[in-house]
Amino acid sequence: MQEKNSRILHSMSVSIAGVELKNPVMTASGTFGSGEEFSEFVDLSDLGAVVTKGVANVPWPGNPVPRVVETASGMLNAIGLQNPGIDLFIKRDIPFLKQYDTKIIVNVCGHSIRDYCEVAERLSDQPVDLLEINVSCPNVKEGGIAFGQNPYALEEITREVKKYAAQPVIMKLSPNVTDITEMAKAARDGGADALSLINTLTGMKIDIYRKQFVLANRTGGLSGPAIRPVALRMVYQAAHAVDLPVIGMGGIASWEDAVEFLLAGACAVSVGTANFTDPAVTRKIISGIGTYMEKMNIKDIKDLIGAVGE
Question: Which CATH architecture has domain 2-55+83-202+225-303?
Fold first, then answer.
């Protein structure tokens, strides 16, 4: 009994724009579906939040195949945000997720500001907790450049989505920019409630024997451990540039990786590519953080957030 009482009682709860999560570990959009396919490996109630695949105002077929390929310490994907659209999402996926004691974060995608606003409006009366706006989508009305690569476009889309959203808005930033702090400030100025980063880095792979691109789309998004140092640096910069909650992601595959992001200033972390190699990795990361906190005599996880300083 004495040994049990000597164990440190630690709190792993974190708050994102007023939404309380039981722990800081969530899934990264596009790597976990909407949870159903992973539910036999992980009790979704253990997670701080489930971040859904991207949801558009209408069904998207995605890009032609092949659209996934492994690379050194990572993978390239050019899925093209294939999704069944908001109608089926509301009918099928939200009721499934509501069975679990976890927060629901809906990733929203679109090709125009109107697309994003329509989805936000449709979700305004739904039992979801936060919206994550994927601004790495191409802006079809501006020549195809991603919303998240132009600070003026980013500020504008943030401001417009906020007009329709009932839930707090997380802007998911693209790393394919010169200065991530400029983009973080643009999202803040547009009224973002939180930031998440990084999305994938643009990459390419060529088959040297067939002399052609491996991906039908030619380029794809690079994810996995290979991008973690870049992601960590950008999370640190964003967290110190704006006074907003930051969700860090990019190559997180272990509890050690997650703690690094927390120390850099992230208040929560999203696990993506690692789900494909170990479907139970999120559960292991949560457990590992708890053990680390006990070993280091840390009673509140908030004491870890940004602890590396300026």
Answer: Alpha-Beta Barrel (3.20)
Residues serving a catalytic function are 137
**Model confidence at 310, in pLDDT bands (50, 70, 90)?**
low
CA distance 4 to 1: 5
CB burial of residue 7 (10 Å; 0-12, 13-18, 19+): exposed
How many residues would you count in the chain?
Answer: 310
Answer whether 113's CB lies under 8 Å from 164's CB.
no
Give me the phi and psi of 146, to 5 degrees please: -65, 145
Render pLDDT for 96-135 as a digit per residue (tens, 0 to 9): 999 999 999 999 999 999 999 999 999 999 999 999 999 9
Question: Cis peptide before 298, with omega less than 30 degrees from 0?
Answer: no
Helix, strand, coil % (nearest 5) of the chain?
Answer: 35, 20, 40
Q: What is the mean pLDDT of residues 124-152?
A: 88
